[in-house]
Amino acid sequence: MVSIQDLIADAGERLTPTERRIAEAVLEDPVLLAFGTVSDLALRVETSRPSIVRFATKLGFDGYTDLQGWVRDGVARQLTTPGDRMRQHRGERDRIRFDIEQSIHKTLAHLDKACLAGLAAPIMDAERVWILSGETSRSGAHALHSGLSMIRGGVHLVDEHDLGRDLSNTEEGDVAVVFDFARYRRNSVLAARTLVGLGVGLVAITDGPLSPLAAIAGTWCALDIPAVGPFDSSLPSVLAAELLVLEIVDQLGPEALKRIDRLERFWNATETFLDEGR
User: What distance in Å separates the CA atoms of residue 62 and residue 60, rounded to the nearest whole number?
Assistant: First the structure.
């Protein structure tokens, strides 16, 4: 069954500013949506009851009651315990550590075998893979490029300054993997839209169904990105990249092993690594 997150992603670019605020409230507080009234949600978003109903119908529901039904199944899993809430307020450092731990657990839970297989499929079929990212998601892009380029050819990490030059070489049948989270980089989003228009497949590693990448990607996943002081954590995107590489290794099977063995022979021939035993 399609989730409410997917429905919001599909409607993302058609939502009005008011409807986007409603969507953000729905995603941020599923408990309110599952058990609150139309008036409760309208009060939270500071909008009218008809706006809530229009939002529900734009997603394909008959009304607010139907919208509630789509989220109630997952509410129990999303509720935090009183102990969790207490830990979040023990201090800034403790809160940050807790948020990071939670984001890792959520990433592992979300990127199950089925999700990873879906993300890997277009990459496996592509002649060439182009990896793009925003500034705060660059670590994930580098991790994916490093791992993926060791197990298959035709993998390119595109620097923001070289977008036009590098992506002008793309062809239909290629795939682009784009990492980007709020606040979304203009270059990443515009490049992704252009590539989709040219027939390039798009896999998006982003942060939710309201991301501009989710609305245009053939395949996407949402990561929980906590703040670490003034910056966004790089850990979820790196973890996602490493899990994706592992999935592709499993699918490639003997082909991945052959490439790694060839690479190892080259490293040995060129004395790439310092052998302290010599």
Answer: 7
